[in-house]
Fold these 2 entries.
Entry 1:
Amino acid sequence: MTSTNVSTLQSSPAPKRKASPLLAYLLIAPPVIIMVGLIFWPAIQAVIETLVLTNAKTGALSFSLQNYIGFFRDPILRENLWFTLEITFGVVAVLFLVGFPLAIYLRFSKSWIAAIVQVLALFPLFVPGVILAFAIIRFLGTHGMLDTLLRMLGSTSFSTPYLHPSGIVIALTWDNIPFTVLVLTAGLRQVEDSVIESARDVGANELQVFFRIILPLVTRAVIIVFCLNVIGVFGSFTLPYLIGPAQPMMMGVSMQQTYNGYKDHIGALTQAVISFIFCASVGVVYVRTVSRPH
Amino acid sequence: MKSKYLTLLSFFVVFTMVLMGCAPAATAAPTAVPAQPTAVPVQPTAAAAQPTAAAAQPTAVPQPTATTAPQPTATSAGPSVVNFVTDSDTNISDWMANVIAPAFHAAYPQYTLKVTIVRGIGNGDQDIADRADAALKANADPQVDVLEYDALSEQQLITDGLWETMDTTTVPNAKNVLKGIQTSPYSMPYRGSQVLLAYDSTKIQASDVPQTFADLITWIKAHPGQFVYCRPDKGGSGDNFVVRAIYEVTGKDPTLFKPGAADPALLAKYADAWTLLRSINSAIYDNGAYPAGNTQSLTLLANGSVSMATAWSDQALQALANGVLAPTIKLTQLTDVPFPGGDTMLSVPKNSRNLAGANALVNFMLSSDGQTSVVKDIGGFPAVDWSTLPQDLQTQYTSVIAKSVPDWPGGDYDTALVKGWYDNVATNIKQGS
């Protein structure tokens, strides 16, 4: 009896696993079609448009890198690109300096203050970019709130970051703190308390615990935060547009300026392709990190 | 701790959603910042559209949408309807609906005004003009009698014969219109805005206020950090300052710049303007920090960061009226060649179902009552000679009255202006390095 029971248990087959892959492809078809039609195809068209020159007289098409050579020859556009890279890596560095301590605090603190800190850290998610820009102008501008407070305390050496690169860094950092803190906290949650405790047991101090235990375990989260922040900051527009200086401009502002202000369609496309190449390379790093098994 | 955090978080989310939901105007207003407050046709408003699209705001739809299609004119039993369509800012549409409509009906009891707002809908007035053109070809009702639109915006509509010719035969009060601001026979200017110098009278004595552009340059160099103008593509107050610099180096003759293709000889003269503006670059606020819009320039003036700035007349007058600018801020205009300005036009399609009413409305807008309302109620500039307005108004605005207003053609001249300014004045890179 038992043997038949056991055998029926063992031989009851699993449900049919022959679901055709066709269904799976059908399910992902709509988003893929949209992505290809609205993103990839126009992007490819744009790249081709910047690489193919039409001879004005004969109408003949020829492959040429002239647009890109022109971009790198122009000292102003070179400075814009360099400025964008400086701001991007500066902002990401500050984001880690600010976000990591916050994430570690939120991960390891058991007090109720941590809940408030978490809500505050997520607050920038709910503030639209334009509102933030004007709030920063009011707060950090000349005769703004910070300036007034400092004067009350006796300091008159305040120099406003408004219309300076430091203003962009402050604004973009504030805007990206929630994402950084969220992802780092999630990554830190995978570091178990027992690991930290055993490290402490063998006498490691705080710094050693951070650099030799925590950091290697959260590498994945750090790379994700790094890549997505770099891509986001590199292409940002609203905050640099409203808070940044007239020159040099970040790539997003420069593209808008070239297209709308100078009516230079191909120039703007060239800048877009260059931005895309940079962001795509960072994107490759991101995809490889994310798709690698733990 | 987790549930406490969740409740706190959800409270915060709901609270901010309610705040954002209750204040659509607050998010809509910043979208209008880079352009002028009123629809001045010369300035590119496309630039204003960009920041909002990129910012992807949660409340993306601005203020009131269009009303339902205007009714056809009434029968002889009651007053006939004159359909007025505008895509200008809310201050203009409110003024038309609440101030002009009753005044118009009082002056012409046989007509009543219906205001339709198309701001934020597609291409605004351009779509209405295109629809009227389609109606002309199909012999249908264009559903508009007076449109706030400059016929020169689209040559095709003029070629199709859409617009009625407006001159003293159809609109008698056109005889008072300032010389030179009616740029085509198919559109009638009815309100304008000039760029003026706004200054803090507590910091600058009336006798020290610069009267000419050359004086202004001297003043700026003598008072570093006290003057600001915004970037020319981000605000007309900055654009017209740069244009005035270009006039200065081309012999102060605005008529040299005609609409159409740009004259290369004139474009070559821009280099002198860049030298002039570069010479004051370090004397501009914060060592050459140019704000990104009209509102920002006025903000710097209002909070005392600078003591003089260029500003649109209507924006400045409205700010003075509602207390944003202190009453000690005064306005003045240059006495040699004034800063250029812009005029808003009215056009009447020939196939309007109430042509008589449409002409009556335009005539009323150009009358002394209508133009006084333009000055008093919306801080606009009259399109008519100041001498046709009440004496007390003339006295009040005596420092800003200009005999003639230069008209900058924009187009290719403007594109070269913007690029040249960014590449030569704003940048710290030496050209050619």
Entry 2:
Amino acid sequence: MKKHSILRVVAKILIPFVLLFALYVQFHGDFGPGGGFQAGVIFAAGIILYTLVFGLDTAREVCPKRVLECLVAGGLLLYGLVGTLGILLGDRFLDYSVLADHSGQHIGILLVELGVGVTVAAVVVSIFFVFVDRGRH
Amino acid sequence: MILLSLLVATAVAIILLRDLFAAVMLSGIFSLLSAGLFVVMDAVDVAFTEAAVGAGIATVLMLGTLTQTSTRERPAPRLDWSALVVVVLTGTALVIGTLDMPAYGDPTAPIHQHVAPAYIAQNVGKQSGRSETDDDDFQGHVPNMVTAILASYRGYDTLGELAVIFTAGVGVMLLLSGLPPTAGDTPETNPAESEAGVDA
Amino acid sequence: MGLFNYWTVIVLMMVGFYTVIARNNLIKTMIGLGIFQVSVFMLYISMGKIADGTAPIRVQPSAGHEAIYSNPLPHVLILTAIVVGVATTALGLALIIRIREAYGSIEEDEILEMDRNS
């Protein structure tokens, strides 16, 4: 679809705003609707739009396979580490109050939602890439 | 309500259509209409997720599948009577089950009385003898109650859900990353074809 | 009547259920499963709504009384269920692609026929 200049130009203008909106939804999940899952899906939708307009090979350069695989595992690992940190600091698994003096809950929720968002985005992008790759042969 | 009748019309149209491309598009519209219904019922987080996931990701993946399979359904026999009987019986049983439920929107329903007010006030886990300052757990309040419950009060469930997404991603990559069968191969004559392993 | 919403949702559920069990095409089955899942979510969310309530995001209490919030607990459960549903859909579609490559068709009766004959 690279030859269609309207699609190309509009996609180039819109995709940064989509990714920025995904980051906004991720970090404002405490104060408005949003959170990790929605942010991950919106981020993946931005990458999917880029793939549809510019082709799978260009998108593979932006998101190489190794990086996606590490991110898929990394988000889940972050969640587990936050939980285990609770045990190491003396309290129960996934107890956030011990992470900081007054705002332990906020920090815990922020880290946990970050892990969720990263894994969801990486998984959806990987699934889409694998679907498209299979169809090309 | 108008939204509900539109939803029923869309669902019936999905069954009757034979063109799979149109059916997938209608299922995306169905997800978007249900997201609108969720907003009317005050569930903004759920509407957000349903619109993004149902009308976005599921539709894209189904279109990706359609490019590799056919786009028209073979005409089915006109009406499957045994299936219709099963469906009508199940529906009747469900409707009889709902006759005991409280009316829609009733604030004195039992589910609003026990756990939910404690979560809304974010009082669970506050022990007055444990911390010097009053607001140790949840400094003030986390304004979005759904995020507070999801990430803190029900953190285990979210961990399990993340593991489910992880497993689904790994499963799809395992299923679709091998070598596709070359033209002219049948699965019996070429047993080593698509199990060639995941390419690095 | 206060139960009309629930009955409409049950009608939707049965439409999805019929699509799953009575259609041969596998992709139609997946779409029907999606309809079924969404109508189950609607049943739960409509149980959580409180009349004159608002979205469960805390606002500053005004005019001396607390605002009434709709019950957030069903929202949390359904959020998890939506995400699990899309995971299942993705896996099912990947399986459909593999079935198509192995059997050459995605109609259920043709696939069972090929299994019986081979």
